[in-house]
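Take a minute with the sequence and fold tokens given here and flag any structure token that looks odd. Thanks in advance.
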Amino acid sequence: MQKLGEFKLPNFFNYPPYFTYMKDPLETWIVGLTSVHIVVEMGLFPLQPVKDTREKQIQLWKELILDYCKTQKVFIVEPEGFPLFTNSGIERSLSHEAREVFLSTLVSEGRAEWMDKGHRKCLILWHRIQEWADLILRFVKDNGLEDSVMTVEEIRSGTESRGTDLHGIDRIVLMRALKLLEHKGKLAIFKGTSADDEGVKFSI
């Protein structure tokens, strides 16, 4: 099985007809038990023209993006430089249209957010904000911190969070989850002398 670093890539990522240039613009191939039509032009891996197979393709890539980002703790994806979108082993890359569609579909499902109007950066929510908030509550209870004070940096990089999804969490995502919990009366966020000094007083 092909890997990207330590990440194991799914079979479809390296399936030769999926990336091979075809003189005939429409060719049928098999992935599992699914008959798929795909167009490959100029060495690019484009979107599939048949609705059912196109939806299957989008689903496979959505799952791959979320799985990769979760296991590698990637929060911000730049479409033009994201390593998943290129298979150097067989010299194929996703077309710009395909990259945009896959990420925009995640955005429409609440699993990502574009960070700029030009769609140059995308914030990936492999846990939704509510799910991150639930993880914070579990973290607090598991560590007996119900009435404690912590800095934001301690939550995302302290010893208590090691081995959890919270360790290394993107600051933007963490603050969104904390503000959601603050709105629900589970904690209070207070300012320090700098952004790194921001604190959280739990009241669970």
About this structure: The longest strand covers residues 27-31. Confidence is low (pLDDT under 50) at residues 16-44.
